[in-house]
Amino acid sequence: MTLHIPAPWHWLLIATLFIVYPIFHAIYNLYFHPLSKIPGPPLWCAIRLRYVFSQLSGNIVQDSAKFHQKYGHIVRVAPDEVSIVDKDIWADALQAPQISKDPRWWEPLPGLPALGIFGAINPDNHARVRKLISPAFTPRTLISQEPILQKYTSLLITRLREVVSANPDKPQNIVEWFNFTTFDIFGDLLFDESFECLHHSQYHSWMALLFNYAKSTVYNAVPGYYPWLGFVFKKLLPPSMKKMIRQHHQFILDKLDRRFKAIDRPDAMSHIIKAMQAEKTTISMDQLTTTAMDIVTAGSETTATALSAMVNYLVHHPDKLQNLTTELRTKFKDESEMTLDALREEKAPYLNAVINETLRMAPPIPWLPPRITPKEGKVICGTFLPGNTTLVSQIYLMNRSPSYFHSPDTFTPERYLPSSTSDPTSPFYNDQHQVVQPFSVGPKSCFGQYLAWAEMRLILARLLWAFDLEMTQEKEETVWEELKVFVFWEKCGVWVRMKVRDT
Ligand code: HEM
Ligand SMILES: *[C@@H]1O[C@H](CO)[C@@H](O)[C@H](O)[C@H]1NC(C)=O
Ligand SMILES: *[C@@H]1O[C@H](CO)[C@@H](O)[C@H](O)[C@H]1NC(C)=O
Ligand SMILES: *[C@@H]1O[C@H](CO)[C@@H](O)[C@H](O)[C@H]1NC(C)=O
Ligand SMILES: *[C@@H]1O[C@H](CO)[C@@H](O)[C@H](O)[C@H]1NC(C)=O
């Protein structure tokens, strides 16, 4: 056996690769990189690793908050990336057609045969998918979908009545109940088969994958930054994992297949099927399946988050909870009166103010997945960003900025009521409401926003109409501002005490 000892020049090569080159690269990044004029924490500007570490540990929002306080509205957080807290970001970046998503975040998951709507970076491909799917989620289609939403809200209330009456002293984790409801609604809207979470009061096995699917976006981005690591990662990934991803894809594919053969019914999928049958658009079943997974993830997780945050803020602000409960219980004598039409802003102002205020304080997507500047560069929020610069819009930090809102960190639904917006003596009169865009704007904005609003209004209104809610001392309080973020907030639980309302 011969032992192979590297010759001295091999050592030199290794040292250059692993030590000298990174040091030179870091120095270049700090002093000579086109972004070196933009302020930022030096370690972060020098190497991307620090940023990646922050993302993987869920601290990116809290970390960015500190930097913006120290360095201002535009901060360099990685060698080629800036973070922005400025209201002009909407017009300058999100509405600008030449700005696209950073492809490093959207490598297909191993085992998935196609990218869905989120990963459709190419504008033509994206426009094609969006044109096919979005007509299923307009305010008009919502009218015919209302019975489905009412059905699952009723089921939620019924199940909660059973559980609460059986065990009145036990605190409830309301996040779970919202999770069940929003998932079940999507099962029905897309596949004509609910996931039966509410029915069994437990998660469907498929949901476990979806939780990880969202979180995996963050992990999946790492190989995008370090292609060699991606190579190792793919080699190391256990085949069982790839198999599981494929199986879940197949599960949805089968559901879609059954749905395509089923009778016509007024759900979201019916619009998509009609468009496909009319051959107005072409899309593969694989892409449709992944898009369906994207939609379930994007739509249920976010809506459940918003509802959980609402309840969390309300039980910790009993006076606001009282205001809302009073509005609902004086206006509606019977559950059946709470239709989507009756819950509009003009008819139920406090309810809508609570939703607006929660979306301001705890936007379910606290920062937008990175965008990238075109090769010629672009002026964004007053700063020229050279080509290929990655930029992140900090939705949450913008909503919490004292430059845009009076007392930004206090939960005050009243700021959204006409008494504040039209009274110059109100301290909230100068609040800049157009800054708050929880659904984003422009070609990639959320087309599920009407459905989301409908679900939020219906579920919150009917819940508070039927139950008295209270915070509980038995479980630790959830402080939203301290939650970790992996694209979405990692909400472990919001515990409340519930009582069936005395009538
Ligand atoms: C309160 C609830 C919701 C919030 C806060 C929210 C927020 C957002 C945001 C900020 C984006 C843009 C992401 C980006 O630019 O990278 C987005 C995109 C999207 N949302 Fe929502 N969303 C919600 C509910 C829903 C619902 C109910 C659906 C169901 C159809 C949905 C489907 C989508 C889809 C398909 C996209 C991608 C659009 C595209 O790329 O063209 N969302 N959402
Ligand atoms: C609710 O669902 C999300 C994913 O959609 C998951 O991350 C979270 O752990 C669930 N929360 C609870 C309390 O079950
Ligand atoms: C809500 O309650 C607070 C405190 O009780 C009160 O000051 C405020 O005016 C109320 N708002 C409305 C719209 O009733
Ligand atoms: C932009 O950056 C990526 C990754 O650093 C690189 O692969 C790509 O070639 C660059 N594109 C341009 C136009 O500079
Ligand atoms: C509340 O939010 C909705 C949707 O974003 C918006 O249309 C409405 O104007 C907001 N209300 C106020 C008073 O700003």
Explain this structure.
There is one protein chain. The chain is an alpha+beta fold and 503 residues long. It has a single domain, classed as Orthogonal Bundle (Cytochrome p450). The protein has 19 helices and 12 strands. The strands form 4 sheets. It has a 5-stranded mixed beta sheet. A 3-stranded antiparallel beta sheet has the order 4-12-9. Helix 7 packs parallel to helix 19, helix 14 crosses helix 16 and helix 14 runs parallel beside helix 19. It binds protoporphyrin IX containing FE (HEM) and 2-acetamido-2-deoxy-beta-D-glucopyranose (4 copies). The site of one 2-acetamido-2-deoxy-beta-D-glucopyranose (NAG) has 4 residues, from loops.
How many beta-strand runs?
12
Q: Mind summarizing the main beta sheet?
A: 5 strands, mixed
Radius of gyration, in Å, reads 24 Å
N-C termini distance: 88 Å
- Number of helical segments with 4 or more residues: 19
Number of domains: 1
Mean pLDDT across all residues, rounded? 90
Strand percentage: 5-15%
